[in-house]
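Field reference: sequence -> structure
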Amino acid sequence: MNDINTGASPAHIAIIMDGNGRWAKNRGMLRHVGHKAGLDTARKIIERCATLGVGTLTLFTFSSENWHRPEGEVSRLMELFMVALGKDVRELHANGIRVRFIGKREPFSGKLQQGMREAEELTRANRRMLLNIAVSYGGRWDIVEAARRFAAEVARGAASPADMNENSFAAGLSLGGFPDPDLFIRTGGERRLSNFMLWNLAYSELYFSDLLWPDFGEQALDEALQWFNSRRRRFGRTQEQAEGGRDA
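Structure field:
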């Protein structure tokens, strides 16, 4: 643990953990070795965020597009996921962390879906930090699902089209009822959202790191938090308004 003064922690951090496969390839290893190393990094970052008082952490672990990867890699990822649902969830529970899964669960095996439900139920009452794990998740899918939910309410007479606004629509998203991310972090050198939380990241601060995810340790996180605390978040207002002064 380092002693970097990060300042006030964001209430919600969202991370795309990119670069596991490249990390392994650079070392002449198979890609699944990189995914295992990435899981070790995730454990460290989760604990660091909880220690710093971050209220919510969302990790993009498996996108809806990742199903198109080679079958062997997907199979290895599912095996790793199953292991994490056992040992790691028990440790998270012991540390007071609530686990919640967001994304389309139907493509997963019945055993994995059951493991997700059990993890959520086991940790439901925990309050130290909320950990959202995005699996088989896509931002466009999330928006379409929210639209379908609202349309279903209209069809059964529970709502009318006039009731549609940003708040009522957002309530149907995967993060409905939870705060949007203040800080978005992507490792691996790419500068794009890759269909991740397209609605919820509208006003997030976007931080991109060239480090591959297995190399993104506690110091790298603290540096991202320092950067975040140097930002002035105006949400469309003038600087004077954001600082509480009068608009010149």
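Note: The chain has a mean pLDDT of 90.
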